[in-house]
Write a structure and sequence with these properties.
10-stranded mixed sheet; TIM Barrel; 3-stranded antiparallel sheet; alpha/beta; globular
């Protein structure tokens, strides 16, 4: 039995994406983004790492919730991850059975899996039942560029890697941007999905506006959108079945769901064609597995959302391999706190990711990394800001 002797929050900040991406210009004006990590040490000397997405938006809140939970888990058997998970939940359930504190539980759960995987010298997916597939097709997740030249560079990168599916960001009024991107990508035999980023808009667009957008893009490009992500606002999830009935385009979502119960409920409502849980949000890797199992029972694929740092990325990929996923997100914006935390580089051949082989999650946060990327108070994502939208003539020229 390996006991938990220490749990600590670690905040790191690093340069993120391109200065002229709309995401950076509107929401990360410092140009830096933060990762909230949890470091768990066992009495056998092993250290595990987890990540909670909350720290991108509220880093100090993340830090304090870790400290609140820590004394309740010290001395617990790290191998009994389920017990540790429920004990952590008992600290926060009364005031955050859903929401921000669940991100912290996510980080602790995946840190325990990482530590136990290292202890047992097996990849993390072995602790989730073993890998169900050898490779997973990736889609490139970017498309936040403010100019055709930048968007073309993203498409060229994917073509060189053999990735044939590109996710761009666009609101309902960005017809020109969408049409330009789809036509440009088609020249490299790359299909395009659209993240409508409705979770970041206070007044989200209704079903009718989304339908008009899809129809006009099709009419003007002659092409079909590969999938539509987060097409409705957080307060209008009940309209997803109605949206699906009006479209031939696959509809997906789930990245903001902070419990498996919540996302499984949407599965039962036929809200999506495929679901996108995130281990750094939904309570950890086992909760992703719960969603994947439920989705499979309803004939639905699980495509993990992975937009955090390297620890988040690997936790989601290990869960995807255990769940038998056929597709997963590969974030394109440059971010040093992704690649620099990986023990081995991602093995991507012909657009497909091979299963990791390192013990645990295959991540390491060294003292050198901590010193190189210290936390910055101005590296906080601003969800209240509105996106920077270039003139439509930029995309129609």
């Amino acid at each position: 039995m390996s006991k938990i002797i220490r749990i600590e929050p670690v905040l790191l900040s690093a340069p993120y994406a391109h200065p002229n991406s709309s995401e950076v210009r509107a929401r990360l004006k410092s140009g830096y983004r933060t990762c909230g990590l949890v470091e768990v040490e066992l009495d056998n000397g092993m250290v595990g790492w987890g990540e909670g997405y909350l720290a991108v938006f509220a880093p100090r809140v993340f830090e304090e919730i870790v400290r609140l939970i820590e004394p309740h888990l010290k001395g617990c058997d790290a191998g009994d991850v389920n017990h540790c998970y429920h004990k952590a939940c008992s600290v926060i359930n009364y005031w955050s059975v859903q929401g921000a504190a669940r991100h912290v539980v996510s980080a602790i759960e995946m840190a325990l899996i990482d530590a136990m995987g290292k202890t047992l010298k097996v990849p993390a997916y072995q602790l989730l039942g073993g890998k169900a597939v050898e490779t997973i097709r990736l889609y490139g997740s970017g498309g936040d560029s403010l100019s055709p030249a930048m968007m073309a560079n993203e498409i060229e990168l994917l073509a060189g890697m053999g990735i044939d599916l590109f996710k761009m960001r666009a609101r309902h009024h960005e017809i020109e941007k969408t049409v330009w991107t789809m036509n440009a990508a088609a020249k490299s035999d790359i299909a395009v999905g659209v993240d409508m980023v409705q979770n970041l808009v206070v007044a989200a667009e209704p079903v009718a506006a989304v339908v008009r957008y899809v129809q006009e893009v099709h009419e003007r490009s002659g092409l079909s959108i590969a999938f539509l992500e987060e097409a409705l606002g957080l307060h209008d999830r009940g309209s997803y079945p109605r949206l699906r009935a009006k479209l031939d385009v696959p509809v997906c979502g789930g990245e903001t769901c902070t419990t498996a119960e919540e996302l499984c409920g949407l599965i039962e409502q036929n809200a999506f064609d495929f679901v996108q849980p995130d281990a750094s949000v939904i309570g950890g890797m086992h909760q992703v597995m719960r969603v994947a199992s439920h989705a499979q029972q309803h004939g639905m694929d699980t495509v993990v959302h992975a937009w955090g740092g390297g620890v988040c990325l690997m936790a989601n990929y290990h869960a995807a391999f255990a769940a038998g996923s056929r597709l997963a997100e590969w974030p394109m914006p440059k971010f040093a706190l992704r690649e620099s935390l990986l023990v081995e580089p991602l093995q991507i051949v012909d657009g497909k990711l091979s299963a990791p082989t390192c013990a645990g999650l295959g991540v390491l946060v060294s003292d050198a990394i901590k010193q190189q990327y210290p936390f910055r108070e101005d590296a906080v994502y601003d969800c209240a800001a509105f996106a920077v939208v270039p003139d439509a003539d930029v995309w129609s020229s």
